[in-house]
Amino acid sequence: MTAFPRYFVPTLLLSITASAFAVTPRPKIAGAPADLVVYGGTASGVMTAYAAARQGLHVVLLEPTRHLGGMVTGGLSATDYAYFPIIGGYTREFYKQAAATYGQQDLDHPTDWLSEPKVGEAIFNRWLKDAKVDVRLGERLREKGGVEMRGKEVSALVTEDGKRWEGRVFADCSYEGDAMAEAHVTYVVGREGREAFDESLAGVRPDTPKHQFLWKVSPMDESGKLMPLVDPGPLGPAESADKKVQAYNFRLILTNDPSNRLPWTKPAGYESSQFALLTRYLKSYKEHTGKDPVLRSVTNPVCFANHKCDFNNNGPFSTDYIGKSWTYPDASYVERQRIWAEHQRYTEAFFYFLATDPSVPKSLRDDTNTWGRAKDEFTDTKGWPRQLYIREGRRMSGVYVMHQADLQTDRTKPDSIAMGSYNSDSHNVQRVAMPDGSVFNEGDVQVAVQPYEISFGAMLPKQDEVTNLLVPVCLSASHVAYSSVRMEPQYMMIGQAAGVTAALAIQSKVPVQQVPVERLQELLRKDGSILHFDQQAHHAISKIHPEP
Questions:
Q1: Collapsed DSSP state (helix, strand, coil) of residue 81
Q2: Which residues in 413-533 belong to E strands, given as ranges?
Q3: Which of 15-29, 409-423, 493-507, 512-526 is predicted with the least confidence, judged by mean pLDDT?
Q4: pLDDT at residue 22, rounded to an integer
Q5: Of all helices (H) and strands (E), which one includes residue 244?
Q6: pLDDT at 544 over 80
Q7: What domains does the chain contain, in order, with CATH numbers?
Q8: Do the beta carbons of residue 80 and residue 392 sit within 8 Å?
Q9: Cβ atoms of residues 173 and 396 within 8 Å
Q10: d(CA 30, CA 159)
Q11: What is the C-alpha to C-alpha distance for residues 472 and 461, in angstroms, rounded to an integer?
């Protein structure tokens, strides 16, 4: 098995397990109290820290791994922008600087928004250094007792090494929302039913046309046994709630440049039988499509500079490890490590199978072998992305819960802090054996939206729970709304708003919920944020995306 990210390395399992049962040492103060402590060096965390530092705050940024940027520098190079004129502020500046690396001086074309992971990480590191943010890598929140409270205020975060990180305001910018949960903020996991917010896209979706088996494929083997990677069911009632989570995957950066290409490797414990259902699907592929399958038939590459592409999920059986993410949001660190490792093992096995198994059509095998992991990306993990794509985990139940209407019919907000425009986009949640002998992927949502405004209240816990915590990533939204707002540019823009909010809360000596919105919006606009769908934004968008 190839190397894993530092955060989840199998050889660390013993030490992590031992530390969980060790006698807890008395926490030691890490240094002078900060104005703002940010937990999670995702792209949102970087923007939160940077924006606050630009407002004059002393900021500490704690990141559990050794790298900054989350998915933006972890394989998601195909930026999910949709109507990119509404992306403003420091987020637009980040992408502008990335584009300048390749000689592009504007962001007027879709290709201007694509860049290599190493380019994004270098920009983030430079920005934080220039802003004098105190970045602490390898600092993970203590699993139990990681947040100290004084009444309704967070007083300190405690990391696994026993350090206490004191601050006046805190921001949980992690994909997991562990600080939020430790602060006893109310949150949900899974899908609401239709009745919760009267959402037509909510809950179990028996009509799931995308990334679906488009012809009948049996999930049973010759002996009548259910094949691997298929849930026996039954499928829940239409529009009903459940605790299941959309699929995660790794976004691989692959190259077809032989001088920069790593070979496909066989993972420990590899068994080709894991892909019995994929074998059956590929066997009937040409009969139903009239085409020989190639790598694009089972993945979605988006290509950019230096012969590289960001490979995402595509079709009914691909890089999404469907049904294997359900327990991740509330799991222990050890259990998350296992889930993370299984996802990487699955991904490695998937590509090794496509590249080597004789049951795979030759057209697909040959095409797969023209690609490989880029040697010059993720160099400390042998070309494997360091970040698992945690598309959705915990979701806060905050001051304002975004829901389907906020994306479709109630798209303006007087307290807007940023805008979104990407489709409602949830990946499949489960792969189920159906009573008619077919297999069915359930949960995918792909519904277009018009640009919408994001409420300030979506990143705020309720004031009767905690008064000095901001949550820009595991924000307050239904599953349906989160499926759009979860895109990295939105996380980043909300992060900028969080950083400015922290500064205003400290200056005004008020809870974060009582920050004057007009002043917040004034400062955001000053630094280029686009908060409302005004005539200027409408004109810019219409030039690129004319209305039908």
A1: coil
A2: 416-420, 424-426, 430-433, 439-442, 445-447, 452-455, 469-470
A3: 15-29
A4: 38
A5: none
A6: no
A7: 26-189+459-544 (3.50.50.60)
A8: no
A9: no
A10: 10
A11: 11
